[in-house]
Structures are given as structure tokens and as C-alpha cells.
From TrEMBL:
Keyword Transmembrane listed: no
Pathways involved: Amino-acid biosynthesis; L-serine biosynthesis; L-serine from 3-phospho-D-glycerate: step 3/3
Metal-binding listed as a keyword: yes
Organism, as annotated: Helicobacter canadensis MIT 98-5491
Catalysed reactions listed for this entry: O-phospho-D-serine + H2O = D-serine + phosphate; O-phospho-L-serine + H2O = L-serine + phosphate
Cofactor: Mg(2+)
Descriptive protein name: Phosphoserine phosphatase
Length: 206
């Protein structure tokens, strides 16, 4: 058995779910400012995620689902997942984003399982709080290690694909480390770099 792990936002999906939700709800400017703080190193992933989700307080859950049902996926996403599954890979998605988005993506792209975060809601409205399995910068690496132990898959049979600093923690557990249209911090840790927006190019490295 082999294992392929993908990030979701800006890797399988074209864009960031939190930005699309903020745009739909009218908190886009606030989220943009928080993102800038995080990019400047003033906020870690955990605190930036909590601050951004807080701007969505009061957003109808129905509206969240509508946004997530209409996500745009990067070229080659469905193709490469199909190729990997045909070659005996289990395909997993780790996302610092939200269940609503990655669940919708699973229906379209066909990956095997996903791990992400949950937007808390009450009476059909978001509370502005978030929790889940992917809340910290180290979460993806920790989860990948557990899955490898469970499935009996080692580093040499693991492929990971991501675009940002939040994906760094899982790179240490994989032999094939793909930086896809990635930020410099991840490119430096990768041994496969793809700058063309076409995920199907990964097949050249299998």
C-alpha cells in the first residue's frame, strides 16, 4: 500500500475557503488584514485561524454550504487522484479549512478520506468559533504519522503535496515532497517543485 496526502486550500482547490466565505458574508477586508499579519509572522496558524473565523459569526450555515458546493478546483486535481488510486495509493486530504469544503470536494474529486476543522454553529448560524483536528501548524505531520502507523505505510511509500507553511510538518514524513505553486518556505523543504497550475504533472514523479 502507498499513501498520498494533499492539502486542500490552494492545492486541490483554487483559492482559500475562508476567503470565499468572508467575501460572501462581507468580512473579506477583516480576513485580509488578519492574513497579512499571519504572513508577516505576527500571528501563528492557530491564532490567525481563530481570528478569521470570528469574523464569520452570525453567517447562516446554509450560506456556508452554498459557497462550499460551488468551489473551483485546480486543473488536474480529479485526474491525479484517479491515477494515484489506480496505482494503489490511499488518497487522504488534510485541511486547515473546514468540513463543509472538504466534504464537498470529496464528492467531486473522489479522495478516500479527509481531516479538517469544524465551524461551530447554533440555530443555523455560525458562532464564530472553530475546532478540530487541523488547528495547529504541527497538526498535519502528527496526523500523517498516526495514519502511517495504522496502515503500515512508511516514509518511502508516502507522497505529500502542499503549498504553504502549514504543510511543512507533514513533509518530514514523506519521501516525495511536492511543493505545488508554493510559497518559498515550502519550496525550500520540497524535493519536487511544480510551478505550473496542473496537478496532473505529479504523475511524472510517481
Amino acid at each position: 500500500m502507498k499513501l498520498a496526502v494533499f492539502d486542500f486550500d490552494s492545492t486541490l482547490m483554487d483559492g482559500e475557503t475562508i476567503n470565499l466565505l468572508a467575501k460572501a458574508y462581507g468580512s473579506e477586508q477583516e480576513v485580509s488584514e488578519i492574513t497579512k499579519e499571519a504572513m508577516a509572522g505576527k500571528l501563528d496558524f492557530y491564532h490567525s485561524l481563530r481570528k478569521r473565523v470570528k469574523t464569520l459569526k452570525g453567517m447562516p450555515l446554509k450560506q456556508v454550504c452554498e459557497v462550499c458546493e460551488n468551489l473551483t478546483y485546480n486543473p488536474g486535481a480529479k485526474e491525479i487522484i484517479g491515477i494515484l488510486k489506480d496505482r494503489g495509493y490511499k488518497v487522504v486530504v488534510f485541511s486547515g479549512g473546514f468540513d463543509e469544503g472538504v466534504s464537498a470536494g470529496q464528492k467531486v474529486l473522489g479522495y478516500d478520506i479527509h481531516f479538517s476543522n469544524t465551524l461551530h454553529h447554533k440555530d443555523g448560524l455560525l458562532t464564530g468559533k472553530v475546532g478540530g483536528e487541523m488547528m495547529f501548524s504541527y497538526s498535519k505531520g502528527r496526523m500523517l504519522e498516526k495514519i502511517q502507523i495504522l496502515l503500515g505505510v512508511d516514509c518511502s511509500n508516502t507522497l505529500v503535496v502542499g503549498d504553504g507553511a502549514n504543510d511543512l510538518s507533514m513533509f518530514q514524513y514523506a519521501q516525495k515532497k511536492v511543493a505545488f505553486c508554493a510559497k518559498e518556505v515550502l519550496r525550500e523543504a520540497a524535493n519536487i517543485i511544480i510551478d505550473t497550475k496542473d496537478l496532473s504533472l505529479i504523475k511524472n514523479y510517481l
